[in-house]
Amino acid sequence: MDDKFQDEMGTQKLPEYARTAFDSAYTQIRKAPGKKASVFRFRRPLLVLAAGTLLAVLWQTPVTDAVKNMLGFGEFASQQVMKSNFVQQPDSAYAEDQKIRISVKQIYSDENGLGLEIYIQTEDGAVAEKIKGIEYRLQNGDGTYLLENISDDKPLHGDNHLFASGSKELSKAEAGSVTIKEIWIPGAGQKTPSLTDLKLTVESLFIENGSAPFQRIEGNWQIAVPMKDVAKFAPIRYQAAAAQKDLRLENAVATPTGMRVAFSYQAGTDSAKKHQEEVFSPVLRDSAGETYESGYSSKEKDGRIYIETIFSYTGYDAKKPLTLELRSFDPVQLVPENKK
Known about the structure:
By secondary structure, the chain is mainly β. It has helices spanning 3-11, 21-25, 51-57, 79-82, 125-130, 270-277, and strands at residues 36-41, 94-97, 100-110, 113-122, 131-139, 145-149, 163-172, 177-186, 198-207, 215-225, 236-240, 247-255, 258-266, 283-285, 291-293, 297-301, 304-311, 322-325, 332-336. 11% of the residues lie in helices and 40% in strands.
């Protein structure tokens, strides 16, 4: 995608119903049947793209993971994490308006990602069947806006937007209710801050309206989300087991929500030219052979190309070797620091 096209995409304003195009574009990233998943990314404030343009945008800066959690939302390979209060399940985080109750069922985060589960209950089951999404703003305890998941026709309230991409899974629960599970990934060089008592403000629900653009149900659901005794886990750093001829590992850090990897290479080399010509996805492979693909962000500085990505690897404290695979370079074996 050339610069002119990227500029045009940055100014486009598409109708809300274009959001559903993501569902068909990325159903292959979800293993579980009967669930609707979509992948999206921020521009300003939330770029809404048709499915036909999504694949091209995924490979442009600053895109990170086409997010998935192999074990399901709120589940992690680390038993240490699963036995802790890392995943918060607030008891009374809900608000009611327009005869609709919206609750926060689960939330978790660390520097590499944020997960949010929202539960919607309606008195009218027919309305629940037509819900396709919501618009909301999420504030940290200090008032900072962490997320503004809104359409382009609404103004931003904050300017500190950390997240570059996210995934959404919408599923029907019992009659009259809907569950929305979202995972958000920070942009290049960004880290999710520690969460204190949060405020989630839901402004509207998108309702399917036949072939016409989605109908909005406007409201004001202000939900206080307490964060109590949240378990904290220190990042585990990895290093390359051996030096690479053309590739330099800049950083590799595992947290419960994912694995952040940054590397660089000299511009102008044969490997660099091949790397830039190919449309590819960096791959992380664990010791069991499971693979995790990811988009990436890219920048050039002082004659080097710097790449950063966050994989949805949740092994965290397994501390086993991992392999970074790139088509244009030799594989890089990653090992926990001091364990070469």
